[in-house]
Amino acid sequence: MTSALIADGLTKRYGRRTALKDCTLDIPAGHVTGLVGPNGAGKSTLLQLACGLLDPTAGRIEVLGRRPVSGSPKVGFVAQDTPVYAGLTVADHLRMGAHLNPTWDSALAEQRIAQVGLEPALKAGKLSGGQRAQLALTIAAAKRPDLLLLDEPVAALDPLARRNFLQGLMELTAEQGMSVVMSSHLVADLERVCDYLIVLVDSRVQVAGEVEDLLAGHHRLVGQRCDTTDLGAGRFLVDQSHTDVQSTLVVRSTAPIDDPSWQVDGLNLEDIVLAYMGGAVGKQPDAVLRGNR
After folding, report:
1. 17 by DSSP, 3-state: which?
2. How many CA atoms lie within 13 A of 227 on its CB side?
3. Has residue 210 been placed in a domain?
């Protein structure tokens, strides 16, 4: 199997409101994939469709080669608000997890609870946001899933809690070798843990690829104002801005750029994401996706 998740023309509507429209993507297995995009891009809807909590209105979705089914032991899911049961203790959550999941790994669950310092007798309603997130991650990981889906799991956490959560996630993925898809607005956090990235805008993939390749292949060019209709072979325009005398371009290039008329700078992952999000405004999808081919 080479794909963790495949969507083809995937659409989800709620009455007249469309949450996801004609989404087509292929998320490779064996990666920690970051899913990033603006509010309303369809990220949460996509993840809920992937774990079987929602049924598509149209199109097709496959997860681990099969149609998604709610409660599948092969898929773990941590929703955006990291839901736990306030009236149950930490130990109650683990017992419930063992009862509901045939693949439950009690040793892993107990080890993680001890590692992150959660008191088994403490009720979840008394836990901090970071502790609740760690409990939710533990429950999802102790299913021993082949795919772990995380929907903005650290959005409400303080920097220390975010760091601890992401450290725990990296340790789990290294130990279990599972595929992970994590949506987040915090690109700096994605850069720490993800080796594959997808930028989703208006339900459409603007760019997808291994993080290392994206960082190596994108550049900021600054030079005299110019016509951008022809940047040369192997160069694809992602975003642009101009003054009366100067052009600033973000391009994806398949070859080194050694043109002395340009000042060439590298980009970090957040620069690349913002360029695709900004460059997608007002463009036809095919014009943006040229950089993927």
Report:
1. strand
2. 3
3. no
Q: Render pLDDT for 116-131 as a digit per residue (tens, 0 to 9).
A: 999 999 999 999 999 9
Range of the domain at 36: 3-202
DSSP H/E element including 237: strand 235-242
Phi-psi sector, 267: left (phi>0), alpha (psi -120 to 50), beta: beta
Q: Annotate 256-293 with b (16+ C-beta within 10 A) or e (fewer).
A: eeeeeebebeebebebbbbbbbebbeeeeeeebbebee
Tokens at 189, concatenated:
């956090």
Helix extents (H) in 77-234: 90-100, 106-115, 129-142, 159-176, 187-193, 211-217
- State whether 187 and 233 are in the same domain: no
Span 76-101, average pLDDT:
92
Report the domain count for the chain.
2
Residues 18 and 83 in one domain: yes
Predicted local distance difference test score (pLDDT) of residue 280:
56
Cβ atoms of 172 and 254 closer than 8 Å: no
Which of 178, 202, 226 finishes a domain?
202
Using CA atoms, how far apart are residues 6 and 8, in angstroms rounded to an integer? 7
Q: What is the dihedral of CA 248, 252, 254, 256, to 10 degrees?
A: 30
Q: What is the pLDDT of residues 113-168, one digit of tens each?
A: 999 999 999 999 999 999 999 999 999 999 999 999 999 988 878 888 888 889 98
Q: Give the chain's mean pLDDT.
A: 90
Q: Quick one: average pLDDT of 69-73?
A: 90
- Whether residues 75 and 169 share a domain: the answer is yes
Whether the per-residue pLDDT at 287 is higher than 90: the answer is: no
* Angle made by CA atoms 284, 287, 290, in degrees to the nearest 5: 145
Residue 194 burial by Cβ neighbours in a 10 Å radius (0-12, 13-18, 19+)? buried
